[in-house]
Amino acid sequence: MDGGSYKEFKRNFAFYLQMVAFDLFSEGSWYGMECSGFMRECGTRLAAAGYAVFGIDYEGHGRSKGARCYIKKFENIVNDCSNFFKSICAQEEYRDKSRFLYGESMGGAVALLLHKKDPSFWNGAVLVAPMCKISEKVKPHPVVVNILTKMEEIIPKWKIVPTKDVIDSAFKDPIKREVIRNNKLIYQDKPRLKTALEMLRTSISLEDGLNEVTLPFFVLHGEADIVTDPEVSKALYEKASSKDKTIKLYPGMWHGLTSGEPDDNIEIVFADITAWLDKRCNAVTFEQILRPSNQGFEKFDNTMVSMAATSGRTQSNGTYLCGLKRPRTQRRSAM
User: What are the residue boundaries of the Serine aminopeptidase S33 domain, all occurrences included (predicted)?
Assistant: First the structure.
């Protein structure tokens, strides 16, 4: 792979949250985004719900080496994620845990391809506005695509692909939008030629093979999303061969369901995600470990869902990681 060996790539991953590991959660991010900052709140929320969360910066993304957001082959990203996440799953403390994939936008495409690569390995997936198809509203005209295809081997890294500003199109809350713009690890230039074509081909391939999806999944999509098409999430739900599949569409919400909406909407989305997960793995939350009684919890569809506020958690002598306290017995993660 470009940008160094797999060993070097692994040293640069964003491994940002490890708490009381009742189940294992592998997280995939958007195109151009990164794990340690942009996806941090997502990891924090899932860890607070009782899940060990692991994320990786794709090659050329975030803190990983390589030409910025240059995707020579989408398969390379999938293979890197598979090698890394399986190396975590092989560790003794995680061998008996359930294994879930989490992907937003392009990360949703990565999650589906990881499942396709090894259909029996993963216990389920949460797919937030997955890139199963590039919306016609932001995709270049077919004539432009045809011209660019003829040039991809000559100028693969050129930043010449015409596209609308995805940040303006994806994130509704103007304050959150500004925070994202100020994140220096996030790529905000025009897509490179080869990258754009690889993403387009991947989305077409996924759209054509939706019936091959067999793992349990929960797909979430904003109905007002103009970056990835909510109609394709509907098609995923309808065509997938999975026996356990759930879809939820959010009226008026945009592409950035977990990071670009007003706070009240984000709370709704994460409540839906954790409720879906808890039903499938009998999750025990961090609060339950600290407070064995059921005080502060509410029964919900035969699962225990934490109703305690973060600020009301019992304190313990431990080290802070991403704003949450964890016991000293946990291995310190590398940042």
Answer: 34-262
